[in-house]
Structure to design on (919 residues):
């Protein structure tokens, strides 16, 4: 098999960096997330490929938190849109864990199927190559295997690497992956490598049947109790690798400006507030319920797979200690209202 | 702390039994050892689940707001900082004092479950030995409740050692350029989730300025300008109102030093309009300095 | 700058407002076509919507109340928020943004051969009007037509010339108008739409009922229709939600797993029964 020795990793990254912006898991000061290799400060920052995962997912690379869409120019009654800002410069996400990769595939479903292709997403996404980092040692908050993911052989990766101590095994899976491989072929060796044995999951999560059961639970009393301590703060949606909701807004300076989109969250009251002031999800509990139903039921009904990928981030980040695994358990145990 | 836990449970159960309260805001154990999570008990049976332990850090005062339009009688457990938050809400007339039954807890200092789970899950870097108190608790000037109907736990000394406004002083030493760069750097990390607002007991506006769309006061872009605007506006709304509970900084998913801004304003309000400490004692009708107006004020407003 | 070759569903085309008509004190009709007056940017089927934008301010999803051949698209727009407030200030000749067409539209084919019952309240007549006018245009394809429409007051009734002049003259067509509260000059019916509907009690045999209006009205109308023997396959309604993208991406207009912008706004009651009651 092809092997990338860890001692050659940085040179390989430098090479890739010449033709694409490479995003990797890093610890920067107190934050960890996917940052550009260009911003890596030797000596200060820490590469986190060996860590289980980082706090902020690579969502930002495929769906930037703020993205300009088009320019607007106004002159009297005339209005012009003279630029649109699709960005198809090449990018590499290096070392995405299978849960985060799956989240991107979910976003592909949203942005590229069902009648419309979102040009902003499409241009960006087509120029992204994903090197997935297989998981042999799931962490205490992980439950991806329960969410229809194979952590060892994740679907949708362009390249899969596996950490075997001194080196990574390197396997190209797609033509994009082959092209990436070709760029660093001088740093890859051909040799055999024994991969670590997969460790069992710490959390035992049983998602089967949950989507189906939820269909009858929209009005169940359980939501009140599950969600009453939720602040509707939206952290869970912002740190989630697969929450993709966005808002479209405009910024003008006098007669010129642009329209942009930015992340949004169904946890916010403003998100579903209608122009006239009404709101179908006016209460915090209704918004809480929408989040979990979207993750566990609605997305599955529409796209055939859950929108939660089991990364565990929301469990770690929620100030109120709300835990999606516990919610799944409670749903399984809940009695259906008569 | 077992003792405190038992007492809270006992009192809450009695309150339910005697029909003195309809709900009790406390903590229960979550899925993991270090998860002690906010809990709304609605019956004597529920009250049996109440706990108080080293992870009962969550300020429950914001939960009170969920009940502000109702008429329920509410029991609530409150540490020092939580109790100041309650005073804050009372001053803002969010509740009638009679609706609350407050069990004050002399707070021995809390650990931060968010740090603990962050390290446990591997998503956060190990900080210290894991036995340390939450950062905010080392700066606490008021561990004892300032308003209560029952008091449990023992009187606690202030844990603040050293200069209270050390961080602020250091910031004040920067020149304007340095300071600008510092804030630009720091605040550009903010992901604008607004969690710092949602958990804040001093944020009790029914429609927050940041959610107001007609007109939209603060842009929603994740850009240094809009981010700074957000923090500038938020911080100034906190002037004279922040009770230093530290929840905003604790829950922030990207470690924005929100308390630095808050403390700067605490210091300034105290210097220019004080002496004043927000939420330190409840006097009916009292208002924070920036919420009152007098003909004798030295400067025109605006 | 990168030049994108893709279709750009989120980028509006520019159209020109060629006429503006006051319908009520807070509803105006805007007639738009390509700048310079050559045709339309796209065709809009009855019941479909488009994102109308006064670009410096915002976008709103508006049901197209009528497409006149390649002459114009007409949008009847009520002042409810920031964007619509601004639109009400503009003058003829203004360029605005438009993207679409969005949504499924009315099942005009499936309704052929049926008697049609249209029930609308307030601005809710705007979407139905595209279907009503379509029926008149293809009059031989549809049976009897009954239109029940109500608003708060006489002044708040939209499309008055059609309501009182043009439509009643159409073959086999009856128009019933009501206002919520009595007014001195008003000789017609007074009362809410659902109770007027029950009073009129139109037969359900071979009829399709289509209703649109404020949620509370729709609720009572649906109940009344059920009482009158309409089954779930005979009742069509349109739903409204906050919208931003219009193409099923931004997330906010979902009811259960359906997106109103894409899978709606038109639903048979039978379909709604399967969805959470969140509208
Ligand atoms: S992070 Fe927790 S408290 Fe915040 S919105 Fe999500 S579930 Fe609610
Ligand atoms: S819902 Fe939570 S566990 Fe699931 S993918 Fe999102 S952040 Fe991860
Ligand atoms: S959970 Fe909420 S924020 Fe996340 S994708 Fe679904 S609707 Fe959007
Ligand atoms: S600003 Fe922060 S420290 Fe001050 S009261 Fe609000 S949450 Fe507590
Ligand atoms: S400071 Fe932190 S908690 Fe507040 S909005 Fe920014 S990221 Fe969210
Ligand atoms: S308006 Fe964006 S999904 Fe419907």
């Amino acid at each position: 098999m092809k092997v990338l020795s860890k001692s050659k990793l940085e040179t390989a990254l430098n090479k890739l960096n010449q033709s694409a912006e490479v995003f990797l898991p890093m610890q920067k000061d107190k934050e960890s997330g996917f940052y550009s290799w260009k911003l890596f400060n030797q000596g200060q920052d820490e590469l986190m490929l060996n860590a289980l995962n980082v706090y902020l997912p690579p969502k930002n690379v495929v769906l930037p938190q703020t993205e300009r869409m088009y320019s607007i120019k106004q002159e009297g009654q005339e209005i012009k849109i003279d630029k649109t800002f699709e960005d198809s410069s090449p990018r590499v996400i290096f070392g995405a864990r299978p849960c985060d990769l799956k989240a991107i595939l979910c976003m592909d479903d949203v942005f590229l199927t069902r009648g419309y292709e979102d040009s902003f997403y499409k241009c960006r996404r087509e120029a992204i190559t994903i090197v997935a980092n297989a998981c042999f040692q799931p962490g205490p908050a992980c439950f991806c295997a329960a969410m229809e993911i194979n952590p060892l052989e994740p679907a949708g990766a362009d390249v899969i690497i596996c950490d075997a101590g001194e080196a990574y095994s390197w396997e190209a899976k797609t033509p994009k992956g082959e092209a990436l491989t070709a760029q660093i072929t001088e740093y890859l060796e051909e040799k055999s490598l024994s991969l670590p044995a997969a460790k069992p999951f710490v959390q035992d999560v049983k998602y089967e049947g949950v989507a189906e059961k939820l269909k009858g639970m929209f009005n169940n009393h359980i939501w009140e109790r599950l969600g009453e301590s939720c602040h509707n703060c939206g952290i869970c949606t912002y740190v989630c690798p697969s929450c993709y909701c966005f808002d479209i807004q405009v910024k003008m300076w006098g007669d010129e400006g642009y329209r942009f989109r930015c992340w949004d969250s169904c946890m916010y009251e403003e998100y579903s507030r209608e122009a006239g002031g009404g709101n179908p999800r006016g209460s915090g509990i209704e918004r809480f319920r929408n989040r979990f139903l979207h993750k566990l039921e609605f997305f599955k009904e529409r796209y055939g797979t859950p929108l939660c990928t089991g990364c565990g981030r929301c469990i770690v980040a929620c100030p109120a200690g709300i835990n999606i695994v516990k919610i799944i358990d409670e749903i399984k145990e809940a009695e259906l209202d008569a | 702390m077992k003792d405190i836990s038992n007492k809270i449970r006992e009192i809450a159960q009695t309150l339910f039994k005697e029909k003195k309260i309809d709900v009790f805001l406390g903590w229960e154990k979550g899925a993991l050892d270090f998860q002690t999570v906010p809990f709304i008990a609605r019956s004597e049976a529920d009250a049996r689940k109440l706990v108080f332990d080293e992870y009962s850090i969550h300020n429950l005062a914001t939960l009170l707001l969920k009940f502000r339009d109702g008429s329920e009688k509410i029991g609530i457990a409150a540490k020092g900082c939580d109790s100041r938050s309650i005073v804050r809400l009372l001053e803002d007339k969010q509740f009638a004092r009679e609706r609350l039954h407050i069990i004050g807890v002399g707070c021995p200092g809390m650990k931060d479950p968010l740090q603990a789970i962050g390290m446990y899950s591997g998503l956060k870097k190990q900080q210290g030995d894991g036995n340390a108190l939450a950062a905010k608790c080392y700066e606490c000037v008021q561990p004892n409740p300032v308003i209560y109907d029952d008091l449990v736990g023992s009187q606690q000394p202030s844990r603040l050692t050293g200069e209270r406004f050390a961080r602020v002083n250091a910031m004040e030493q920067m020149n304007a350029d340095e300071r600008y760069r510092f804030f630009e750097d720091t605040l550009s990390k903010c992901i604008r989730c607004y969690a710092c607002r949602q958990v804040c007991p001093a944020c009790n506006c029914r429609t927050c300025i940041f959610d107001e769309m007609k007109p939209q006061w603060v842009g929603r872009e994740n850009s240094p300008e809009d981010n700074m605007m957000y923090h500038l506006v938020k911080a100034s709304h906190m002037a004279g109102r922040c009770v230093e509970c530290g929840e905003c900084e604790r829950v922030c998913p990207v470690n924005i030093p929100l308390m630095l801004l808050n403390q700067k304003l605490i210091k300034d309000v105290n210097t220019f309009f004080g002496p004043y400490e927000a939420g330190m004692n409840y006097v009916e009708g009292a208002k924070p300095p920036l919420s009152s107006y007098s003909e004798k004020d030295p400067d025109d407003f605006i | 700058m990168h030049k994108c070759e893709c279709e750009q569903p989120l980028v509006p085309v520019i159209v020109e407002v060629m006429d503006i008509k006051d319908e009520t004190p807070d509803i105006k009709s805007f007639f738009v076509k390509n700048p310079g007056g050559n045709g339309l940017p796209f065709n809009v089927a009855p019941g479909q919507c488009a994102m109308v934008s006064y670009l410096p301010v915002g976008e709103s999803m508006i049901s197209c109340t009528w497409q006149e051949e390649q002459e114009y698209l007409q949008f009847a727009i009520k002042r409810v928020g920031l964007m619509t407030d601004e639109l009400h200030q503009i003058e003829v000749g203004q360029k605005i943004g438009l993207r679409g067409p969005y949504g499924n539209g009315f099942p005009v084919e499936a309704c052929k051969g049926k008697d049609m019952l249209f029930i609308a309240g307030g601005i809710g007549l705007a979407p139905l009007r595209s279907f009503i006018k379509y029926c008149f245009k293809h009059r031989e394809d549809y049976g009897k037509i009954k239109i029940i429409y109500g608003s708060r007051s006489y002044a708040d009734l939209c499309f008055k010339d059609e309501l009182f002049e043009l439509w009643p003259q159409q073959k086999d067509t009856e128009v019933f108008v009501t206002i919520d509260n009595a007014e001195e000059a008003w000789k017609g019916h007074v009362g809410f739409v659902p109770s007027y509907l029950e009073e009129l009690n139109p037969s359900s045999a071979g009829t399709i009922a289509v209703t649109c209006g404020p949620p509370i009205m729709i609720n009572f109308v649906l109940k009344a229709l059920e009482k009158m023997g309409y089954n779930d396959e005979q009742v069509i309604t349109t739903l409204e939600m906050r919208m931003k993208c219009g193409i099923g991406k931004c997330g906010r207009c979902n009811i259960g797993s359906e997106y109103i912008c894409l899978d709606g706004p038109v639903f048979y009651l039978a379909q709604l029964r399967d969805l959470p009651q969140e509208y």
Notes: The pocket of iron/sulfur cluster (ligand 1) is lined by residues A 230-236, 267, 317-320, 322 (CB under 6 Å). The first strand of chain B starts at residue 23 and ends at 29. Chain B is about 35% helix and 10% strand.
